[in-house]
Amino acid sequence: MAATRVYLDHNATTPVLPVARAAVAEALHQVGNPSSVHRDGADARRTVDQARDRVADLVGAPASDVIFTSGGTEANNLALLGFDRPVIVSAVEHDSVMAPARLASAGFSTVPVDTQGVLDLDALESILSAHPNALLSLMLANNETGVRQPVREAAQLAHGQGALVHCDAVQGPGKVPVDMSDLGADLLTVSAHKFGGPTGVGALIVRSGLSLAPRQVGGGQEGYRRAGTPNVPGIAGFGAAARWMIESADPDVTSVARRRDRLEAACAEYGAEVVGADAPRLPNTSCLTMPGVSSETQVMAFDLDGIAVSAGAACSSGKVGPSHVLAAMGVADEVAGTAIRVSLGRDTSDAEIDRFVEAWKKLFRRKHPDLSTRLAS
Amino acid sequence: MTVQRPVYFDHQATTPLDPRARDAMRPFFEESFGNPHSAHHTLGRQAAEAVETSRRNIAALIGADPREIVFTSGATESNNLAIKGAARFVGNTRRHIVTVATEHKCVLESVRALEGEGFSTTLLPVLPNGLVDVAALAAALTDETMLVSVMGVNNEIGVIQPLEEIGQLCRARGVLFHSDCAQAAGKIPLDVDDMAIDLMSISAHKMYGPKGIGALYVRRRPRVRLEPLFSGGGQERGMRSGTLPAFLCVGFGAAAEIARQEMSDERVRLAELAEQFKVRLLAVPGASLNGDADKRWPGNLNVSFAGVDAEALLGALIDDVAAATGSACTSAAVEPSYVLNALGLDAELASSAIRLGLGRQTTSDDVEVAANAIVHAVDTLRAQAQDSAA
Lengths: 377, 390
Fold this sequence. Notes:
The structure holds 2 protein chains of 2 kinds. Chain A has 15 helices and 12 strands. By secondary structure, chain A is α/β, with parallel strands linked by helices. Chain A folds into 2 domains: 6-14 and 252-376, Alpha-Beta Complex (Aspartate Aminotransferase, domain 1); 18-247, Aspartate Aminotransferase, domain 2, CATH 3.40.640.10. The radius of gyration of chain A is 21 Å and the shape is globular. Chain B is of the alpha/beta class. Chain B has helices at 19-30, 42-61, 75-88, 105-115, 134-140, 163-173, 246-282, 310-316, 338-342, 347-350, 364-389, and strands at 7-8, 69-72, 96-100, 120-124, 145-149, 176-180, 199-203, 214-218, 287-289, 300-305, 321-322, 353-357. In chain B, helix 2 (42-61) runs parallel beside helix 7 and helix 3 runs parallel beside helix 4 (105-115). The longest helix of chain B has 37 residues, at 246-282.
């Protein structure tokens, strides 16, 4: 009997929403290049403009501030390398922030996090006083642990010194509200495929008045900030997903959090420790460790049981190294090497949680026959 | 004859997605999902396998090894990555770049950006037929030259540059050769070895694939090293980070395979249609073809109608023919074409040129409809001009 698969890797990518699929399919029938003057061009341009409005609405920004990119990575690079300012990042940022930060011509500094993965605001304050004209890049929530950062507080400190603030909000939409002005961000990154849109499209939202050096130059598209023929079908799907999140998605995600909490509680009886458990977290994310069992072994065992989870960030395939996120939280390498990330979707059911918990127990018992006997007694 | 109007004659701006490519893509945005980089679980594996099949198809189209194909968001990114990436790579001690006046804007802008970083550049003129003078190119190379960038097929006038000759010249002089083949791939035979190409940019939506995806060919032997345009998760062997859009990769791969199989027949078919079109258009008094008459991609006819304003002509044709004056980049910018200017056309003749792009769905009836409409519109505009002058 082939059981249906259980997908618990929504922080890596999400199923494409039916409305987004329909929008992609429709745009694939459009012929024109949005930059062309004729009607085919105008039709494609309208598709892009409508999506721009939706994405702007999703994050509470004016449409003209939206720069469409090929995804979160490009948007983060565009932000981090777009200004001739020293860069300040938290120690737990995504690689697509960390890597360009290291290349920043005016240098970069890292702000530590506490053992729960939350930014140290005092440390930020002292780094800002040394680099008052910096660009601070702080993620809304961590992709591996789900730990949310105090973006608003950090932005207030940064702006007080004259620094700019970029927020990688890729893990936000669909899980928590994202409002650019509420956060106090000058720049914000979002990615379509993390909340039901297609892969290959994202956006950097840039507060008007900021002049940003482009990464790719050419035909002058996106207000001379990002050249190249826009990905019309991808953008259409992005807009449709944004619209769905604004108009149709249940804003109450407590049921997701409840399922996640139940999963954690059940696994805790079988050896699980939750990384960042005491911090404010995304409702859907759980970073769990299973003592003595490597992340890789767990991911493969769950996969054989028909359950998709991941060992930390799902970036370059085959890349297996200790997570810089867990290291920054002071998690020892041998413990970090036993961590997996379980990330729920809005549709994840109780039955799917049960499947995961059963698979966890099975693996734990197999690896710890003595311990599980004691636990069961 | 039943022809749906306006007839699409702007295949250089973008091509309609081939229904076969669309069918190939459908499962990857409808049913299957999964980050192709999540190597371990099954959904991710299926997506990754489909992406690799596409990579093989794209490699086969240009005679490359699949490991030499880096997926990008399109030709603009590919050109930026190739030119800036090769120039900025630590270890490149040479600091001179040669390109051509008629290259696409994203090539010229990339080169210009490097001037600001201390590179010197030579912008070669072209012959009146739009072709690069290879002897002049040879003379422009110095011991400092690190990169030559010459496109395969020009986007505005359709001329085919002598890539093989240029490639052999660069190889002999130890200079990297990049070619923007956005308009050439899938249209004319390309072989990175025969043409001694080290870096080649390709775009899916110019060859009946989807928008939002392209590729850069990066030679492995001898290895060409690039500094990435953006970095992060280290995908695409560190040259291009970011989650790959599996559905777009699949559409690109399908389009590449279709183009590889149908290329030679399609070229013959389009040459016949172009001849039919050209005979009609050049019969108009004061009409002239821009760019070499023979060394050209037949799906491009760039024609000047002396004394007729091209914008007015396109306006008059708006219900019948979707065409362009030139490059479809910033639609706001209406400037005389720098490409036609480089051929030596005066401003008036350059501003009387329209580009007619024929493609896979273009029929003889389409050509007839468009030719009639254009001939009529030119007559009408000229008569109006005479009336107002009288």
